[in-house]
């Protein structure tokens, strides 16, 4: 009886070990999907990890979304298995018009696919000048759609390149009432705060805020040497 019990337990251990080895031998995903959120070929800057896309793959028992976070320069990446996917935008997440249409994505090895969006407004370009402890930005704004009006244009200063509406040491804002026309360059000036007086450099960025939309569209972050 004891011998039979021993043999049974031994077989059980070998079976569990075999299943565990089988699971361990599954190949991990190796194909990288990369791209950018774009409008007319221009990447749309956003708040780092504040915006995400969704990937869906039909035909599997566990049908669930694969979240894909968008970096502040508008780029995204995901490590996937080869196959057919649907990529969608999240409604209400992002400084662009809601669009529930998905795009087909065929992943076969390393794959590049951009996600087109229709932003409300964008920062076409921004240049900066430093005078003493004051940084002045000259920004060109483009209004793409007027379904939601422009609320404000903002200039941010932060100690790292991850600068946005949530991560900033100083900000100055021009409200819509202070902007007679976005067809003309806008000028914003901000003082570097005392908390950054000993910093070698700071990072600046211009963001455009649309009324009723939580996320902003941004220019690329730029490093400004202080010393």
| Structure class | mainly beta
Mean pLDDT value: 88
- Shape, principal axes of CA atoms: globular
Q: What's the β-strand tally?
A: 17
Radius of gyration from the alpha-carbon trace, in angstroms = 25 Å
What distance separates the N and C termini? 84 Å
The main pleated sheet reads as:
5 strands, mixed
The residue fraction in helices comes out at 10-25%
CATH uppermost class of the largest domain: Mainly Beta
Oligomer state equals single chain
Q: Give me the CATH architecture of the largest domain, please.
A: Sandwich
Domains, number? 2
At the fold tier of CATH, the topology name of the largest domain is Immunoglobulin-like
Order of helices and strands: HEEEEEEEEEEEEEEEEE
Tally of separate helices? 1
What does this structure look like?
10% of the residues lie in helices and 45% in strands. It is mainly β. It has two domains: 31-116, Immunoglobulin-like; 121-225, Immunoglobulin-like (Sandwich). The strands form four sheets. Strands 1, 2, 5, 8 and 9 form a five-stranded mixed β-sheet that branches. Strands 12, 13, 15, 16 and 17 form a five-stranded antiparallel β-sheet that branches. The N and C termini lie far apart (84 Å).
What's a concise summary of this model?
By secondary structure, the chain is mainly beta. It contains one helix and 17 strands.
Attribute tags:
single chain, 227 residues, Immunoglobulin-like, five-stranded mixed sheet, 17 strands, 10% helix, globular
List the helices and strands and how they pair.
Elements: H1 2-24, E1 31-39, E2 42-43, E3 51-56, E4 66-70, E5 75-80, E6 83-89, E7 103-107, E8 111-112, E9 115-116, E10 121-131, E11 134-143, E12 150-158, E13 170-175, E14 186-191, E15 201-210, E16 217-218, E17 222-225
């Amino acid at each position: 009886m004891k011998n039979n019990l021993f043999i049974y337990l031994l077989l059980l251990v070998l079976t569990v070990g075999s299943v565990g080895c089988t699971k361990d031998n599954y190949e991990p995903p190796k194909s990288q999907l990369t791209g950018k959120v774009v409008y007319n070929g221009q990447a749309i800057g956003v708040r780092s990890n504040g915006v995400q896309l969704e990937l869906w793959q039909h035909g599997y028992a566990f049908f669930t979304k694969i979240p894909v976070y968008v970096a502040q320069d508008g780029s995204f990446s995901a490590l996937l298995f080869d196959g057919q996917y649907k990529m969608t935008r999240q409604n209400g997440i992002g400084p662009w018009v809601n669009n529930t249409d998905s795009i087909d994505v065929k992943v076969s090895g390393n794959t590049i696919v951009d996600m087109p969006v229709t932003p409300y407004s964008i920062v076409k370009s921004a240049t900066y000048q430093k005078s003493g402890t004051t940084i002045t930005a000259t920004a060109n704004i483009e209004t793409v759609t007027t379904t939601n009006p422009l609320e404000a244009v903002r200039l941010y200063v932060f100690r790292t390149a991850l600068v946005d509406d949530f991560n900033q040491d100083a900000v100055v804002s021009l409200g819509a009432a202070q902007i007679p026309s976005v067809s003309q360059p806008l000028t914003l000036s901000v003082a570097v705060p005392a908390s950054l007086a000993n910093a070698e450099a700071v990072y600046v960025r211009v963001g455009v805020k649309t009324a009723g939309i939580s996320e902003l569209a941004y220019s690329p972050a730029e490093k400004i040497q202080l010393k």
